[in-house]
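#struct-queue
[09:14] JT: dropping the first one here, sequence first, then the structure tokens:
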Amino acid sequence: MGTHPRGASVIAKTNTSLEQWISQNPECLGSKVMERFSGKLPFLFKVLSVNISLSIQAHPNKALAEELHRRDAAHYADSNHKPEMAIALSAFEGLCGFRPAAEIAEHLQTTAELQAVVGTDNVTSFVQAVHGSSGALSTAVSLQQCFAALMQCPRETVREKLASLESRLQTDAASQPPAARLFLRLYKQFPGDVGCFAIFFLNHMKLKPGEAMFLGPNVPHAYLYGDCIECMACSDNTVRAGLTPKFIDVPTLCAMLDYRCRTVDENKFTPVQQGGAGGAGVSVYDPAVPDFSVLRVELAAGEMDYTLPLVDSASILLTVQGEADAYSGSLGEEPIYVTRGTVLFISAG
């Protein structure tokens, strides 16, 4: 939902593209958005239902996006950054950011196949960094060396070690720890893919409905299972790491990633709760980017009327559950019937 050329929305009654309608009615964006984003809608809004895991990837910041577009427009089709937020609609699983360093060290030390593709010297260096040994590299630098070694390992060696690990873990699959069980799941979907090893480096996120994770520049992430709302800057720039047959840009990926280690809870994004009119619950997901914010409005049981707050920018409204008649002064007396899946574009003000 939005105006990106790879999937632009259309106005249902006229079949006019939303991009064309906005260009003819630029005031609909609001003066601040019109000025800052040169008359363009600055965000995309998506609904994802993930059954097979989507690729492990990261998105460049604005400066790197511009450089990548200049250098390789075939793979990086625009020059914009792509911060994004995923808000769970159902029980939802994903990967987000590097695990706490101690967890990564444990996986490297106890998983022989992973150690073989990363390299013993790199593993030793990382463990020393985690323990704060004198003269050791910083944790972030050593982690970058380990992850780069994994991504640069010959594909045949990766496939061989993945098959070995899968065979070993399958002998007692039910009693394996969570990371090993996740490995077995992903190996069934992407046998031989280096991304199956990457999960030992990344946090396994489990979100309840309404919980969210914000994916800032250079943060490695993936969506594994479940339904979510995704909002992002208007871009398609993606640098992939694995769980995909698509193009993987290893040098760019390894140089750009944010190698800070965080916990699962630190990678969750907590919305601000606001009381809405008539007892509605309003959750505001407002990350530190100018391109978008998301409001989740849930009406109280039996509540029959709700007035959306005025905002000074254009909005896209998605009905997730329930049904209603929507009225607006610009529509006159004729309501729009909305039900699950109905999408409305709302002008500023």
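[09:21] JT: and here's the second one, same format:
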Amino acid sequence: MGLPRGPLQRINTRAAPCLPLPTITSAVDHRHRYIMMRRVLLVVVFLACSCLLFGFDYLFPLRVPQPPHAFLHPGRPVILSHRGSRSLNPENTILAFENSLLLGADVIETDVRLTKDNVLVCFHDEDVSRTTNGSGIVRSFTLQEIKYLDAGYHFTPDNGTTFPFRGKDVRVSTLREVYEKFPRSYINIEIKDDDPYAADKLYEEIEFHPGWEQYIVVVGQYCKSLGRFRSLSLSKGKNIASAACENDVITFLLHSFLRTSRVWYTFVQDFVPKAFQVPVRSGLLSLDSSFFVSCAHAMGKYIHYWVVNDPREMRRLVEIGADGLITDRPDLAAQIFRDMGIKQQPSQEEIERIKSLSGKSFFIPKFDVVEVHTCTSIGCVAVQSLENSLLMASVIVVGIILCCSIPYYRS
């Protein structure tokens, strides 16, 4: 016997509405939406910051004045004789330096290494066998022993047919001898030893000759030895001009491409190098662009390219704004500079003197040496590897596109 239906029972018998219960799926969806919104926001912020950075750098480009220096002249490129014009004379010798200045070079470019008794000599290679009649590394010779070697033994202007300087008393030069011979000539000195002690000895040598620092720029591929020289120079209040080491160049290159040079310069006010001395190419990486030059000039830095022996290349680099050319052929560079109105024409007396020495004191080569840049730092190797990888990836992508296109064209 059933109970009479009251209001309460009527309510209970009605179908209750179906409320969705919280599920794992809906929670995951909410989390996905949150992650996506956060990613979109990050992308928007990144793009906004990039536009602000790029726009600010383009609308208000950084222009730092180039500091004055004895042979670093804004708007006036210079010729640096590579190892004292190694194509015309035995490299890094007094004879080579003397003839390079006669032929129109503005600056002597040389390399220094330490001997066993800690004397700085002008020598490029670690081993003496390529240029002299000896064998062994420079550091294993005393000054007296290395002076005994024939520095002109292997010089040949005709690819090994003749050796005109053998037995002509051409000797390895010390840096002090170079100063004594050319006390007021501009000299670009590269520290070749990856040893801070070489920097100490170079600073001592410069300090030994008061006023010589005004005629010098110190260079070094190795940042350890060059950094040591800069520290000594700054600590003594000299601030002797120096060019960038390899890591400096890589850092600057990356900032230039990322357009972050303004921010970088703002926070690194004491960026010491006054110049970049770089190859035209490093592996697949091209540095001979007006963009790279303009970025360096915007930072108040000078650009010198090495080793440039082709007249057309010389003209092109000067036209894009290069401040100097490091060359084995100062004779060709001087003629290009005269044709472009950068240098004055030589006097008749100078022309006659050059003619009289040609084939006797210096020789015009039948072949020019090609210089190839080899990285010594991890940063440089990384940049070259990255570019090689990008090139390989581009080739693979193009290959895939072509392979995918073949069936389409066949149909």
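[09:30] RK: nice, looked through the second one.
[09:31] RK: The two ends are 84 Å apart (CA to CA).
[09:31] JT: good to know. The chain has a mean pLDDT of 81.
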